[in-house]
Amino acid sequence: MASVTFESVTKRFDGDVVAVDQLDLAVEDGEFMVLLGPSGCGKTTALRMIAGLEEVTEGTLSIGDRVVNDVDPARRDVSMVFQSYALYPHMSVRRNIESPLLVRRYPVDGPDRPPRKLSKGERDERVDDAARVLGLAELLGRKPAALSGGQRQRVALARAFVGRPQAFLMDEPLSNLDAKLRAATRLELVDLHRRVETTVVYVTHDQVEAMTMADRIAIMSAGRLQQVGTPQDVYEAPANLFVAQFIGTPPMNTLPGTVALSDGGPATVDVGGGRVPVPPGLTTSLGDGQPVVVGIRPEHLTVVPEGPVEQQVRAVEWLGHECLVFGAVGEAPVVVRQTGMATVAAGGTARLAVDPDQVHLFDADTTERLT
Amino acid sequence: MRRRYSAREVALAFVLLLPSIVVFVAFFYRPFLNLLHWGTFESRRNGAYFEDVGLTQYREQLTGDDFREGLWHSVQFVLYTVPAGLVLGVLLAVAAHRRLKGIKAFQAIFSSTLASSVAVTSVIFFYLFNPVVGLVATNWLNDPTWAMFAVSLSSIWQNMGLAFVIVLAGLQAVPDEVMEAATLDGYGPVRRLLRITLPLISPVLLFLLVVLVIFGLQAFAQVDIITKGGPVSATETLVFKINRLNRPDNIGIGAVYSVGLFFVTLVVTAVQFTILERRVHYAQ
Q: Least CB-packed of A163, A231, A253, B142 within 10 Å?
């Protein structure tokens, strides 16, 4: 197990396409870190740099105390689960899992003795162990083609952790599974991580995977790191508008508006369809008429008769345990999450109230959070 | 349970197959039967008339020294040209299968041997080996020990291009992620080639092996252009001998040789498939 540290790491392809831009990120030893972002944001490139499948253009990448910029992929002691699983189709499940053990050397005789290749007995023991943990014991003799998608994915996982690497790298490992299996596998991955206590760097574009599995989430966009924090951090205090809108389903409502400072009374933001209270304890000083963007999560809006904001209701979706009320405040689309039955109907208007503590303000120009 | 086909379906199948049946019967099965038949006629008085001797001529000719010599030369030719062409083609394809600037130019160069005809290639090699004006200042073409090897070089050169093109296409079907997984598992370049790449392209390799062996057994133009079968008869392959026998006075023996070559090719190909098929991995 080891930490993984990016220090000002940049990756440029063909000289000018910047895939990863000045990335600073410290993945702690034993941590489950999720790199999250839309496709093309650089998260997979960052992961492939850890594996050594892409070279670092600038900056320093370390695994543990060792700078690995120029270390051969095979000598980094990391393993990777690929989106396609990348199993060897001509080998049995047993041989697939055993494959890293066949060629690599392992420090099995303690840290003072040189690493060596494992004996047949030791290899079998590890393969059987991995197969048992992942429920593959019955399938060891089969070829990958005779397995289901979920089983193939487990073989890929077994192959990745049979060598007990310093870090596990996973590139969207669940994206080829159906929704039901994906949810079940999420729990298993968390369980597996708890058991092996290895550092995991996990790439996904699915924020649900990130929220449910990560110790911390690193959110990337256009090659740049937007925010790193626990799922709770990024949900409750998004660092900028991108993070605010990327995390959460449905995403946070964002309403452009202008600050209205009243004499003596509390400051508000005029968002066209009404006035939203400014969060208390805001240390940034706001000027009258300053353009800002207000962010409010759907569950923090409540429909009350005297609410200060008016929403034109366009549609109501009833999901059983909750309702989503779609509409607009001023020009901006706004979704409200109501528990139980909806109290408004499509075509009407709803008066909305919001707890000032749950209001986020973002700078209209920089899109950064105002604190 | 096997599904039973209705009369209509059977009729339709027959109609759809008819064009290919017609072509095969006209240009393959009927001539082949003719050939079998001709083989039973022995030439008398230098082809003035023919006598039906039944299978006697088959027995005598197929066990004769001349047929055996031709067969041995053909086998020699196959042994020289197939493994070397295949290995060189695979190595070049593996070397050229990467994302590099200008790699297309190399791919075009390596595959160009495929685009040149046997005749052109043979003429080039004929001059290369010319003891006076050739680049290779040897007398191989006049040396019975080396003549077959020298002729083979032109075919190795051609086989290399064919193998290159087909193996390169095979390599492009191998998923990058599988090769990357092997890299992370600690496989070096040689291990990756032997344990991952070659098994994954084994169907392509089997195909090439079968095709190149058949090409080798049918070699004629190279021999005809470069050595004319000489010196003495050192480079007379079976097909060369068949061509030499293809005159009215010898047509019976030529037919026997042709039938002999047909069965040799059939058996060799069948053996290749049965032995190697089990070791070939076909993608699902």
A: B142
